[in-house]
């Protein structure tokens, strides 16, 4: 952890000379130290790296919804005198974000793929092609689709409920940690006399 | 018609193309327009022979989008009707059927699937979009600093606490208060309404706090404040505590402990039972109906201080009403619910969904007839409420027999005006208590005479 802390300090001091792109890359690499990503993560990383907040900004930045997971990525601001709790919070949030992104990307892709497969299978069973003679896609009516929707939910029940539990646990932990960090910052500001980051 | 469209598009967007590209494209377009046979079949043939140069087909689709609007899945020529803001959002889960549902960009799978995607995602219907949604849509495409904007904060809080739903909850509590057979105390009424409103704000905020990733993935909820990052989760929880603690305290201290207990119980039921259950089992709907039934009971206990049969009847009316309301709403959201992992009757047990909606609509008739038996209204109430109860039952029957999007929408919209109407009728038919002050006066009169 010290490596990343000193690393960020060092590079931040150089930032003023090298401009804001370095800052964004550093923020990005520091927060990535723990993560090895499969393909969706890497795609998200490049998306995130394309954006760089202005170097004077002291806040986190939130981006547009991801194309696959519909979740919004956040770029976290690293203050200069980041305490261990703040770093832990940031890492936890980043990790949760990635985990969420992976789950929902997987979920959405699987859902759409299985839906298309189901439609094709049903159409084949009825002896119809995917498109009619006008080039329009054949659609199934809502009763037939309901069979698929129910099936999808039933097959993924365990996965969904374990995701739920994990998400609630992480959400609580993050919020409690945020509360602690906020209290510590307020205490520093009141007690320390010097302005907090 | 296709030729006309081709010509239109030649005039408008394509004529703006400049330079060599423009002249080449325009020449080709005019050549095609001249050659193009007057049929859609011809167009598709043209498309298949010259796929690469088929800018025109995209343009046609663009024009079509301008004039043909999508009404919850069915295409129609009418623009969407304007939404009434207040009575719109109702159910804790039914925030937005009436707000403009933006078309979700269809998520095309990344690799391997031959899902033809003409151009980009189907754009949202822009013809009748409210300003707030338009701004949200534009804002969603950009990176934004996560800084609290104090000027937006009241609006954020309103949306976080689902202010429309809260208003309806307070209305039902007020109805419960007004139906109680005690003299009307305006201060008590005010405290009870305020306390109930605060409890509802808390419950809704915590619900949104729990459901951020699910809300991001569903069309109707993706503009919520936490999803958009307008405030942090800690801020939302603090707001919830800031509403809940004074709310329950107000109910307990200024009204009575029973009402305070019911308020706290409702918060717990909604946040800790209903919200997680939504993803685990279909019993969430019944739990949600109980949550909706408690506010009128709270109103009654605020006025009288005790749980009577009248309170339970008012709660029963709300309980039964939830089913046609929610089942109809959830019918048209089945795909989103399935993808989001929500277990709703409409997805997993569609037959039961329709049966239950019908059963409870008929139950409303029965409960309305019980009102005079219990003594809260006169016998005129079942009679005057019969038309609206029969109408909602009729719509529920049609939904039961033939559950398509139209019938579901009709049933849902009917439930929106049915409930306020029913409560109003109950209020007008309330049994009048005989005034105790009349007795001593008449006895003194008899003494004098």
UniProtKB/TrEMBL annotation, chain A:
GO biological process: one example: intrinsic apoptotic signaling pathway
Protein's UniProt keywords contain Repressor: no
Residue segments, region Disordered: 35-66
Main location: mitochondrion
Superkingdom field: Eukaryota
Gene Ontology cellular-component annotations: mitochondrial inner membrane
InterPro entries: COA8
Location(s), subcellular: Mitochondrion inner membrane
Keyword terms, alphabetized: Membrane, Mitochondrion, Mitochondrion inner membrane, Transit peptide
Membrane topology: Peripheral membrane protein
Family: Belongs to the COA8 family.
Name used for this protein in its record: Cytochrome c oxidase assembly factor 8 isoform X1
Taxonomic source organism: Clupea harengus
Lineage, uppermost ranks: Eukaryota, Metazoa, Chordata, Craniata, Vertebrata
From TrEMBL, chain B:
Pfam families attached to this UniProt entry: UbiA
Membrane topology, from the record: Multi-pass membrane protein
GO biological process assignments: cytochrome complex assembly; heme A biosynthetic process
InterPro entries on file: Protohaem_IX_farnesylTrfase (IPR006369), UbiA_prenyltransferase (IPR000537), UbiA_prenylTrfase_CS (IPR030470), UbiA_sf (IPR044878)
UniProt-listed Enzyme Commission number(s): 2.5.1.141
Subcellular location per the Swiss-Prot or TrEMBL entry: Mitochondrion membrane
The protein's enzyme class: transferase
Family: Belongs to the UbiA prenyltransferase family.
Name of protein: Protoheme IX farnesyltransferase, mitochondrial
Organism field: Clupea harengus
């Amino acid at each position: 952890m010290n490596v990343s802390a000193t690393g960020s300090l060092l590079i931040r001091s150089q930032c003023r000379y090298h401009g804001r792109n370095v800052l964004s890359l550093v923020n990005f690499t520091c927060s990535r130290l723990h993560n090895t990503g499969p393909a969706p993560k890497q795609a998200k990383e490049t998306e995130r790296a394309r954006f760089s907040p202005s170097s004077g900004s002291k806040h986190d930045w939130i981006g547009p919804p991801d194309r696959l997971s519909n979740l919004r990525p956040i770029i976290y601001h690293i203050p200069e005198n980041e305490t261990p709790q703040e770093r832990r919070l940031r890492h936890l949030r980043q990790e949760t974000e990635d985990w969420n992104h992976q789950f929902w990307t997987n979920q959405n892709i699987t859902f759409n793929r299985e839906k298309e497969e189901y439609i094709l299978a049903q159409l084949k069973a009825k002896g119809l092609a995917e498109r009619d003679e006008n080039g329009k896609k054949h659609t199934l009516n809502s009763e037939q689709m309901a069979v698929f929707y129910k099936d999808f939910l039933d097959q993924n029940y365990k996965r969904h409920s374990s995701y739920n539990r994990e998400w609630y646990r992480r959400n609580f932990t993050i919020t409690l940690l945020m509360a602690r960090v906020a209290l510590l910052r307020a205490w520093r500001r009141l007690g320390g006399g010097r302005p907090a980051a | 018609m296709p030729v006309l469209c081709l010509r239109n598009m030649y005039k408008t967007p394509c004529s703006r193309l400049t330079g060599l590209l423009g002249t080449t494209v325009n020449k080709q377009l005019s050549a095609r327009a001249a050659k193009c046979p007057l049929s859609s079949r011809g167009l598709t043939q043209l498309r298949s022979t010259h796929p690469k140069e088929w800018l025109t087909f995209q343009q046609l689709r663009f024009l079509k989008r301008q004039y043909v609007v999508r009404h919850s899945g069915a295409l129609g020529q009418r623009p969407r009707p304007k939404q009434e803001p207040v009575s719109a959002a109702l159910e804790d889960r039914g925030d937005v059927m009436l707000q403009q549902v933006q078309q979700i960009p269809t998520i095309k799978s990344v690799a391997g699937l031959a899902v033809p995607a003409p151009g980009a995602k189907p754009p949202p219907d822009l013809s009748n979009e409210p300003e707030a949604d338009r701004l949200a849509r534009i804002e969603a495409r950009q990176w934004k600093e996560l800084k609290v904007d104090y000027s937006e904060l009241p609006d954020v809080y309103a949306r976080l606490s689902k202010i429309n739903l809260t208003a309806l909850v307070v209305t039902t509590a007020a109805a419960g208060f007004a139906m109680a057979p005690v003299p009307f105390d305006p201060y008590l009424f005010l405290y009870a309404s305020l306390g109930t409103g605060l409890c509802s704000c808390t419950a809704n905020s915590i619900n949104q706090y729990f459901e951020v990733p699910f809300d991001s993935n569903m069309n109707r909820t993706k503009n919520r404040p936490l999803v958009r990052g307008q405030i942090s989760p800690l801020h939302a929880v603090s707001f919830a505590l800031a509403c809940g603690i004074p709310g329950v305290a107000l109910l307990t201290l200024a009204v009575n402990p029973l009402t305070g207990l019911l308020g706290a119980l409702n918060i717990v039921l909604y946040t800790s039972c209903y919200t997680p259950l939504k993803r685990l089992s279909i019993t969430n709907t019944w739990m949600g109906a109980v949550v909706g039934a408690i506010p009128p009971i709270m109103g009654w206990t605020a006025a009288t201080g005790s749980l009577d049969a009248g309170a339970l009847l008012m709660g029963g009316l709300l309980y039964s009403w939830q089913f046609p309301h929610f089942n109809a709403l959830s019918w048209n959201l089945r795909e989103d619910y399935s993808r989001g992992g929500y277990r709703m009757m409409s997805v997993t047990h569609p037959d039961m969904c329709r049966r239950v909606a019908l059963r409870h609509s008929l139950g409303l008739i029965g409960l309305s007839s019980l009102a005079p038996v219990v003594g809260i209204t006169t016998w005129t109430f079942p009679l005057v409420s019969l038309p609206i109860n029969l109408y909602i039952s009729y719509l529920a029957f049609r939904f039961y027999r033939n559950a398509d999007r139209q019938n579901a929408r009709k049933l849902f919209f009917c439930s929106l005006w049915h409930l306020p109407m029913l409560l109003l009728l109950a209020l007008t038919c309330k049994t009048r208590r005989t005034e105790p002050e009349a007795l001593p006066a008449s006895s003194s009169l008899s003494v004098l005479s």
